[in-house]
Task: structure prediction
Amino acid sequence: MSDAAQPTAAEVRAAAEAVKAALDRHLAAVERRLGEDDPAVYEAFNELAAAAEEYDELLYDRYDEVTPFEIPGGDDGLPPYTGPQEPNALSVLIRRDYAVVEPQRLLAQAGRVADLDGDPDIDTESATGAGSSVHAALGVLFGEFEPDEIASRHKEFGLEEGDSTLWVTAADEPSEPGEWLEAPFDQTDPQQVVCRFDVSAVFDDELDEDDPDPEVDDDVELDEPLEEAER
Result:
């Protein structure tokens, strides 16, 4: 960063004062909290995180120093929940990615389903092409098996799991039939998400970087590494 763009000492000092004020507001909100999910605590938390990040950036730009603090974001990177506290309806949004790593296995499985099932509900064109077209094979398999079964048996179908995510969103009232079918994922409000669960190889990579030598000494008692993990 050039000298002209560097923050002044007064700006860094002001950012430090903002962190102190945000700490006071956060503590006050925690002391007055009305329940486990008090929105005032979430708001104070976010203000403290923003103030700390601003101070850390200015401190580094001006003095090439950093703070020893790391304030995590909200759970799973979601904004504070603002949906109904007693929802009458919920939606579960799931995305699972796969790579077709063994197309011949996929084609064979789809051909077997099409031949043995003889289901009149299976599209004739898809069924006859199930053993020669990956596109048709996928249509047959996903038409025959539930997504959860494909997830548990993906290797049998020549697939390799990629990233996956599951979001649970809350609502005051159930949706009208057919209301969102044309664009099922477009109307999701992150602040209505009650919880989410992510699976990704990137998390394994992060664990490997944190623990480059995961081997455990056979002489170490089992509860010792568990205690380390909890810390």
User: Anything to note?
Assistant: Confidence is low (pLDDT under 50) at residues 122-128, 216-231.
